[in-house]
Structures are given as structure tokens and as C-alpha cells.
Amino acid sequence: MSTKNDLIQPDRDQDAIAIHLTDKDGFADWSKSLSSGQRASLAAQKFEGGAAQVGIIPDGDNWFAVGGVSDPDDISSWCLAKLAEALPEGTYRLTSGEPGAAMHGWIAAQYSFTRYKDNDNAAGPRVLLTKQVKQIDAAVAEAKAEMLVRDLVNTPAEDMGPAALEAECEKLAKEHSAKLKVTKGDNLEQDYPMVHAVGRAAARHHAPRIMHLSWGKESDPVIAIVGKGVSFDSGGLDIKPAAGMLLMKKDMGGAAHAIALAGLIMQAGLKVRLHLFVPAVENAIAGNSFRPGDVLKTRKGLTVEIGNTDAEGRLILGDALTRASEEEPELIIDFATLTGAARVALGPDLPALMTRNDETAEDLISAGKAHDDEPWRLPLPAAYAEWLKSDIADLNNTHGNPYAGASVAGLFLDRFVGEGIDWAHFDTFAWRPFAKPGRPKGGASYGLRASFHMLQNRYGS
What we know:
The protein is an alpha/beta fold. It contains 15 helices and 20 strands.
């Protein structure tokens, strides 16, 4: 993960290469100030002011840059990202205005995943100057959180199993002087029976576990963050086809979001008593795999008939949400790469959001829009809860029709959240199938910034 704090630096009038911003409508007027040779240079580069276009303009012995944006007066998180990707190594300054929100994209655009392969062709750091010095640390923190999600999701399952997720929680706890408790292996069977059942077939070095990190004053409002940590999902005995398994290293994307969000909360010093829960398993196949038709006990005391072993994420979340509810939080937020149905409904870019509380949904959507991370709300219709009925247990983990899969999964989780607790559930893809400026193909965060800024609005000092 290439995350250098010096990618954004205070502007103290040091030497820097100028960046002009224009849009397609204003390009003709803007270019009138250029010489004929400069205009010819831009024409040769096919620069017309379109969004995400980049031009290099000779200026005597020097040069300056021009970037196409949707609206030069409306700086978004990603409007400078293509410049940060395409420009040569150097120090840059906008000729008009300040980067503001675009600091996020400027840093995130210079991300590369190099754990297994050096990026020898990468340009050196592109540094952006700003007078908004007080905003730099927050921008860097959010970009680092974004890139942490990318790194964790991009890492293959053998190197990002339950033990590696535990190590990430340990690192987080040490950095912020938080308390961490880990329950693992057969010790899960009594208190977290669904986590144990789903993870017990994995090899010993990928043994299941649940991490519980706690931080903050006990007198502050209690919130809980929960993240689905399925390090690899074979589907279990209801095995996935090869194509369905190919991206299953990303099935711990919910845990990656939860860990990153917890880090942002602690670094910002929000006035909360934070509880982070990460149930971590590999849904493997062995002689002791849980089976279709089995009935599992749960921490809450409910019994769950297994209609499909490939609907395992909701099982481990059920136990974790029950445990989170025992802290009597005023808010729980969970993240999970839970259903293909959410992707069919909303595509990869919009995380499905389900909440009990309309105000919480509005706050999350508003914060997401303001920070270019908009979720889309799906319903939790009480009428569909009957689809989870079982003939022999309190409920089934799947339903027998093809409808409303994301909402029905949300309704399953709802059964394990304590009564009266405000709860928000993100069904997120955690993966970008197509690159966009500042957002490469691969692991990606969705709903992370929306959640953090909603919490900051509620609990910030």
C-alpha cells in the first residue's frame, strides 16, 4: 500500500507546477489565453476539457498542466484523481481555489497493490499543495482507510485468513490503546455456535475466531461496528461453481470495512464507547462441514435450519450481532459482502443499505452524498419475514423463492439485533470490477466514508 503523508503538503509558496481546471463548456474561452503553439499542443493531445482529461502545456523551458473536470467550481472527491494518476512525479498547485474534498482522490489515485509484484513502471510521488492545512490530516486518514480496505480485500485467502484478520485487529488495538479479546477454535462452540459451525471445517491455521475490540470511555454513548470476515467462501457442501469461487477472497470485505471504520473513529477521537466485532472464518469443505438440513444453535437461543451452506455470512453475523446487542449500544452498523441479489439490484458501485430507523438512513445517505460515497436504501418488509420460516426450527437461513434476496437476508440479521436498537446494515460488494480515476480494479470501499461522516456528525467533538 503506497500511502505517503507527504502526497498532500502545506502550501508555503514553494516552487510548484501549476494545474488549471476547466470543463468542456468553458474550454474554448479558457484556451484563448494560450498561444497558438500551446493550443496546437493541446489539440495534438486531443484535450477538449472533458472530465478526467489531462493535458501538458509547454511554457518556454517549463510546462504546466490542465485537467478536465465536470465543474471547476464544484470540487468532488475524485475530480483530480486522473491528474494524480497521469502526471509525472513532481509538486503541483491549483491555480484557482483549493483541492478540498479532492485531496482524498489525489492520495487514493496513487495507490498500488505491491505485496506480490513490484510496480516498477509507477511514477514517483505527485505532491499537491494546499493552504487548507487543517484538512490535511483528516484527508490522509480517510485515504489510508480506503487503501487499507483495498489491501485487505486484494490479498489472497491463504495470506488473509482468520489469523491475518486477527493480526489486523491486534495492530489496530495497539495503535489506539484499545482492548482486544479473541475467542477461537473449539472455544467458540458454546458462546458462538454458528461461527464455530461455519468455520470448523477449515485447516487448523485458518481456524475460526471472533475478535472483540473495545475502546473509549464507558460513560460515552455506546456504538458497535460488525464486519463479516469470511476469508474464503467455497460455498461449503453447497459448493460454488469455479466462476463463483474466483473472487471469494473478497468475502471478508465486510471485516475490512469494519476494521477501517473503527480506525477512523478512534483516530478522530469521536466521543463514543466503541465495540468492534469481527467474526472470521473460512467456509471450507471437509468431513466435519456443516450440512444442508442441519439445525444450528445460536448465541441468541434461536435455532436455524440450514437451507444452503452458501448462505453462511448471515450465520456468523447472527452470533456477532447478538453479542454486539448485549453491550446495549444505541447504534449498530454492520458491513457484509452478503448477497448477489444486492449487486443485481444496484450494481457494484452502490452499497445496499437497510436500516430500522428512517432518520439513520437519511443521515447515512446525506453523509454519503456529501462525500461521494452514496448508499442506496433497500426495504426490510415485515411481510417477507415469513419466507424464512422453517418446519423444524425457529427459522431457515434461506428462502425458497428468487425474490428480494438482499432484503430477506437483512430480515434474517434483524432477528439477531436486540429489540429497540438502532441498526444499519450495508450489503456491499467490496470490489470494483472496472477501473475509474482514483479507483483501480480490485478491492474497494463502499459505505465507509458515508458511515464515518454520519458518526462524526453525531459524535464529533
